[in-house]
Automatic annotation (TrEMBL):
Upper classification of the organism: Bacteria, Pseudomonadati, Pseudomonadota, Betaproteobacteria, Neisseriales
Family of the protein in this entry: Belongs to the IspD/TarI cytidylyltransferase family. IspD subfamily.
Gene field: ispD
Protein name according to UniProt: 2-C-methyl-D-erythritol 4-phosphate cytidylyltransferase
InterPro entries given in the database record: IspD (IPR001228), IspD/TarI (IPR034683), IspD/TarI_cytidylyltransf_bact (IPR050088), ISPD_synthase_CS (IPR018294), Nucleotide-diphossugar_trans (IPR029044)
Site keyed Positions MEP for the nucleophilic attack: positions: 155, 209
Site feature location: Transition state stabilizer: 16, 23
Keyword Transferase among UniProt keywords: yes
Pathway: Isoprenoid biosynthesis; isopentenyl diphosphate biosynthesis via DXP pathway; isopentenyl diphosphate from 1-deoxy-D-xylulose 5-phosphate: step 2/6
PANTHER family per the UniProt record, alphabetical: 2-C-METHYL-D-ERYTHRITOL 4-PHOSPHATE CYTIDYLYLTRANSFERASE, CHLOROPLASTIC
Signal peptide: none
Amino acid sequence: MKRNIALIPAAGVGARFGAGKPKQYVEINGKTVLQHTVDIFTEHRDIDLTAVVLAPEDRFFQTASEKVVLLHCGGATRAQTVRNGIDALLTQGLAQAEDNILVHDAARCCLPPDALDRLLKAAGNRPEGGILAIPVADTLKQAQADKHIQATVPRAGLWQAQTPQLFQTALLKRALAEADLNAVTDEASAVEMLGIQPLLVEGDSRNLKLTLPQDEYIVRLLLAR
């Protein structure tokens, strides 16, 4: 029977956040960002397993949950970390080719459960998979090298990708094996390189990614609620 497995790449150093430690280990409202993120999936009725992919030397994150497995096989980039995590799940018999893998950013710790529900319902049985995303609402400007405006970019049909991004294990493994990982910005981009068009499922503006120090204030407010 097909299972839903959350895969959280957490091997990054969080250089842009500037906290002196990986941003997934910043503590907010009594728990690390990573623990908040993991809890989203362990508390969801339709997620069977959560795999956290850590750097080989990372021993900061520990868990006693039976629904969480720690994989110390993170790579130098997000794409390498996800690829290594999938290989480890398959090697250890924790995932099968037909299972769904939901890759989610460790720093998106405010994912609303109803957005996760929408993704599972809309894309859980689709061979092409799907991702959470939101239509672009702001006016987009293309910049010149000196940061002056070169053009206004039409926003019609443009969506901002979020996570989770859901694909069958076999498809995602193939996509990451065949892609130039330096050109992969998210899992969907690797799948697109195979000529496959994943489904866009409307996400949620609260599902923001903790990237810059000023994001922490908003995340604290969201988690407090």
